[in-house]
Amino acid sequence: MKHLNGWFADYLVICAGSSVFNVSDLDLYSRILIEPCAVLIHAVERAKTTGILRFNSRVAVQGCGPIGLICIAILRTMGIVNITAVDGNEKRLAFAREMGATNTVNFMEHKGIEALAGAVEASFGGHAADFAFQCTGSPVAHANIYKFIRNGGGLCELGFFINGGDATINPHFDLCAKEITLVGSWVYTLRDYATTFDFLRSAKRIGLPMDKLITDTFPLEEINEALKTNLAMTGLKIAIVNK
Questions:
Q1: How much is the pLDDT for 207?
Q2: Residues of the chain with pLDDT under 50
Q3: Is 230 exposed, middle or buried (0-12, 13-18, 19+ CB in 10 A)?
Q4: Residue 129 and residue 99: Cα distance in Å, rounded?
Q5: Is residue 154 a contact partner of residue 52, using CB atoms and an 8 Å limit?
Q6: Coil, strand or helix: which one is 188?
Q7: Is 172 helix (H, G, I), strand (E, B) or coil?
Q8: SS (H, E, C) 99-129
Q9: Which pLDDT score is estimated for 5?
Q10: Angstrom distances, CA of residue 183 to CA of 21, 28, 134, 180
Q11: pLDDT at 233 (0 to 100)
Q12: E strand segments, 146-188
């Protein structure tokens, strides 16, 4: 059987032994967000294995696209309140504050990594981050984020869903001398879905504007326009919603 990713087909084959979840209690937009939210639930669970991510951690989230914004929301539902979002787009940074970030840093306003790292530290009252999530697909961003993290801190890299190219770091200064614990994260497991449902309910309960992540909706007959909008990167999440 040829394997198909996604739903662009007339029929779906559900194999024997598959798990099927009933999420009828979730609203439509919450159901649309299940898959990307599961990616972040998995990443946060990976981060927790380091033993560094705690209730009172100072957390930096680099990249405020849908993945970074959902990451912030999950951290907020966990009770983590000292969160700094880093991005180069003021609209996305404003949205990050709506999702629970307490501080924001626009990297466009800082020349060079030392100045940027200093701005991140200033957002934490002069302290480096205890933990960081790298949510972009930029090799430069990956190389930079080590400078945001304190000695003995942790990092979860989840931005490279596909091959985005090589990143250059100095293993001595960036990893070894600082004793940073690094974990990678890629997609999710079946178990993460059940946690995701609870997260979406919690986010709604505390008033996080998850629905605003879906910036554009199109009927099925306008799927080509939806794909063009997605490629143009003018919105966040683009959804096909049948009439």
A1: 97
A2: none
A3: middle
A4: 19
A5: yes
A6: coil
A7: helix
A8: HCCCEEEEHHHCCCHHHHHHHHHHHCCCCCE
A9: 60
A10: 29, 33, 11, 10
A11: 86
A12: 149-157, 181-184
Structural domain spans, the chain: 32-184, 212-243
CATH fold of 32-184:
Rossmann fold (3.40.50)
Where does 63-189 have alpha helices with state H?
66-77, 90-99, 113-123, 139-145
**Residues 107, 196: Cα–Cα separation, whole Å:** 31
In DSSP terms, 182 is beta-bridged to 155
Vertex 171, ends 170 and 175: CA angle to 5°? 115
| Model pTM score | 0.94
pLDDT in tens, 136-171: 999 999 999 999 999 999 999 999 988 999 999 999
pLDDT of residue 14: 82
Which of helix, strand or coil describes residue 236? coil
Amino acid (one-letter) located at 234: T
